[in-house]
Amino acid sequence: MSLKKKLIILLIAFTLIPLVMFGTVMFSQAITALKAVRIAQLNNIADLKKDKIETFFSERTADIRSTQNYLNIKRNLPLLYASSGEGTRASSANALKELDSQLKPFQVDYGYLNLMLTDQHGRVVYVSDDALRPKLVGKPLSDRHIYEEGEKAIYFSDIFVNNARGNTVEMYCVAPVKGLNGNFIGEVVTEIDMGPIYSFIQDTTGLGKTGEVLIAKQEGKEAVFLSPLRYDPEAALKKRVAFNDTVAHPAQMAARGEDGSGITRDYQGTEVLAAWRYIPFLRWGLVTKINADEAFAPIAQLRTFFMAAGFFVVALGAFAALAISKTITGPLSSLQEGAKAITAGDLDRRVGTNARDEIGQLSRAFDVMTDALVHDITERKKAEEKIKKLNEDLEHHVAQLVQSNKELEAFSYSVSHDLRSPLRGIDGFSLALLEDYAHKLDDSARDYLERIRLASQRMSQLIDDLLNLSRITRSEMKRERVDLSRIAQDIAGRLKKNHPERTVEFVVSGGLTAYGDERLLRIALENLFGNAWKFTGAHQQGRIEFGSTQRDGRAAFFVKDDGAGFDMAYVDKLFGPFQRLHASSDFPGTGIGLATVQRIIHRHGGRVWIEGEVEKGATVYFTLS
Amino acid sequence: MNNKVILLVEDNPDDVKLTMRALKKSNVLNDVVVAQDGAEALDYLFCTGKYAGRDKKIMPQVVLLDLKMPKVDGFEVLQRIREDERTKLLPVVILTTSSEDKDRVAGYRFHANSFVRKPVDFNEFTEAVRQLGLYWLLLNETA
């Protein structure tokens, strides 16, 4: 993932996560707080409404209480229902006049639709409203139940629609009237217009747009709505809801006499915050409610605000990340491009900037490194060129060497074959002369012929030695662990067996091994032991020792004898082929032995040297890699 | 014994002479046919060239074969001898100055019956020839 993406993700994570956590806490707290506030508000309004309603109706109670004690009514009511019987028309007319003079202004001043009086049987005997008076007087009160309640105490009827007066919604308040003698003589009935009550019930001040106040009452197992509803203006006295219904929960609760508040569903099934109150003397349940949507609108606003803020912060974070990444990745990608260019071979490319930050330092450090690398590469290229040239030279030399080896081989072959043939002729024909013409030759001639033969045989020996030496140089090496002590014992045993007349003591150290070609090492030891054997020949008895010692921190083997020895002044000549320090007559040989040994040791990566003293013996040392 | 011919393939007249002398001294009295080089040896064996008219029934008792010769060398002669049904079983002794291992190995690989190095010392040479004659002319039963 690129640095840019990482930075953006990091910054978003670091802004968004706290934002979401903070927002969540804020929301839950805000919701709780808002809910509490809203519920309290609804409770307040409900209480206020209830108060107002109670105040209104207590005023109505006070009204009827004063009316009930009017002397005018106590005195004149009996006269009225007497007139309906056989009472005097004059007294009844006078009574009516007296009642009118007091009750009509009362009705108007206190805002009643009408005021009626009944006799003790519930028959209407007085109607303040002149228009209705002829219709109602003499008839019983519309509802017998109201009359019965009014006989006992002040009683507010249920709300009803009065058909007689153009379908007005109203209610009765009834109160018993006692005569001057204290007996029940009838009832006073005030007709209350529900209009103004509805007006202030439906006043939703402080409840917002979806707020609503309504009243309901219990009727059997149902709640009946008593006021027009906001979403159903015709609901008053018509809309009902069963108590086990899931909707209109606040109205159900209020109608059943409960006080309370909460979040629930209204008559439309909408989620609402509601408070409900019961007004016992009216048997009304009062509900104030507001749609949850509106009640919690601030939360939605808050959410919107938070989302906007979140978006803003995230956007800001992303922008910051982009800006930061650009300030970082910009120089980095130019660094990267530079690195690529340098990798591709543009060694003059530099990426350094003047920026004082870490990346600037890095770019400058990179340039320093590039300089060093370029220097190194140039050096290395030079060195490689040199090595290449050396290698070519070497290959050339090797090819030359291979060629000369082949030539040497061909040379050896022809030496072996061509040089020996004439020798055989010389020897053979010399012998033929000696054998076939002996009688014609004198001693001197015979001696010469013998010398010719010896010389040719000696030359043959030289050729053989030379060929052997060349074979040792050319033959393949098979390296393995070689038991030098055992080989030395073998050779010593063979020498003793072939020359039983000699008294030579062999001292061979045990357990000496080396890593090398067994055949070649055997040839080397044979030569060394052969030499030691030969050069101790002039002494009565000899001692030949094979062992190992430390020289220059390395293990060196040695073959030591106590024979003729040699003068160290000529030590350099000893290892050359056919170099001899002794007369053939003293010690026979072609002088090829040490040259052979040296070649074998050199082929093993070792070193060979010799120390000696005339008549004290010689010691040949050699090391093997 | 006289009817047993020896084919000596040798280009060096000195060596021919010495070999003849060595054979004589070893009392090998068989007829010796000398081929100066490989080509002549093959002519003799397969009755071609200057030997076209020779009696085909006579085959040498043994071939003494030098290796280094002009025209056709000893190895090629040996190879041709072993390839041909008529001469496949002919005893061939390589008689050479060379003591190279590779020559010896090559000789046996081409199914030479023996490999003898000619020593410089004539006495030794005579001894070697004597033994050869003894073995190949007297003792060996040809196939």
> Over the alpha carbons, how many angstroms does the gyration radius of chain A reach?
72 Å
Task: Determine the number of helices of chain B (DSSP H or I, runs of at least 4 residues).
Answer: 5
Strand-pairing-aware structural class of chain B = alpha/beta
CATH level-four homologous superfamily name of chain B: Response regulator
Give a description of the structure.
The complex is a heterodimer of chains A (625) and B (143). Chain A is of the alpha+beta class and 625 residues long. Chain A contains 14 helices and 18 strands. Chain A has helices at 3-68, 71-84, 89-109, 133-136, 144-152, 194-201, 249-255, 292-295, 297-343, 358-436, 443-474, 484-498, 518-535, 593-603, and strands spanning 114-119, 124-127, 155-162, 168-178, 184-193, 212-219, 222-225, 240-242, 260-265, 271-279, 284-291, 479-483, 504-508, 513-517, 542-551, 554-561, 608-613, 617-622. In chain A, helix 10 runs antiparallel to helix 11. Chain A is rod-shaped. Chain B is α/β, with parallel strands linked by helices and 143 residues long. Chain B has a single domain, classed as Rossmann fold. In chain B, helix 1 crosses helix 5. Chain A binds chain B through residues 412-413, 416-418, 420-425, 427-432, 453, 456-457, 460, 464, 467, and chain B through 12, 14-15, 18, 21, 67-68, 96-100, 118-123, 125.
